[in-house]
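Hi C.,

You asked whether I'd gotten around to modeling the 336-residue construct. I have! Everything is below, sequence then structure, no commentary in between.
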Amino acid sequence: MNKITIRGFSEHGNWYKGNLHSHTVNSDGMLTPEESVKMFREHGYQFLCFSEHDLYTDYREKFDCEDFIILPGLEASAVLYEGDGSSGRRKKVHHIHGILGTEEMIKKAELPCYRHKEIHPVLKFYGEWDGALAAQQLADEMTKRGMIATYNHPIWSRVRESEFIYTKGIWALEIFNYDTVNESATGYDETYWDVMLREGIPMLGFASDDNHNEGLFDDSCGGYIVVKADRLDREEILKNMLAGNYYSSAGPEIYDWGIRDGIAYVDCSDVFRIDFIAGNDVNDGTSHVCKDYEETIRYGEYVLKGHETYVRVKCTDKNGKTAWSNPIFMQGRKRG
């Protein structure tokens, strides 16, 4: 077997913590942008995206400083209503982020970039829809406007796999949504992630808050990404996000991970279990679980068999809080 070596993170750089999914009084949140920035900065965040429902905002001029930056964006919607819509009941939704992209993406944009406080018209359907087509329409608009597109909380959205997993132009799937985890246990989307990865779709993942701060349950500072970059500026953060040079977390830290001489490894904070998830044969991957509740582990390995199409790692502490790496894709491997 070829003893491959692939780094999971860049060798050099600093770590920057941020939330990509957040709402304020500009849509259906309860905090002002000022209150939201204050809260996240007090919890050690260095960047934040205000992803208001169908409303693009750009607060860079107001909030950017030496140790904190804003990523402009919005959360675009397509909604399938019951029947003629008179009941107001939503049967399915697509929520697709648009995060303002790199300078190169902006230059190549086919459509004008959104302006501050510009409204995105909701795509509305009644009785039935072509879900896959609706998702593609949203994603296309985001990318044509120079945006980075993500697909958010599919379990909460009540969509079927076929209605979103083949959407072109999606950078990452929201695999952990702290708000919907605590609202209705519908914020864990790892299964869909592996479905996509097993289909050969090179999808990255991210954790977020989706905070609204209504006070009904905790929805803030519980899901985030930590990006490795040379410095804190929008271009550096975005380029490293796009490259997968980050991890997602609800608490634990991942210090280093990758493949060294054919062995996948991870170095992390104290956790109760470490899982290596791999594709694409039955029994691929492995888990390391502490035998005693008081024990912890900080390192794990998985010896690759040689046919894997991808491998990723998750590290979970005894309170159930998890950190997730992005997948490493074995280029040139035959898809299972």
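If it helps when you're writing up: The first strand starts at residue 6 and ends at 7.

Thanks,
B.
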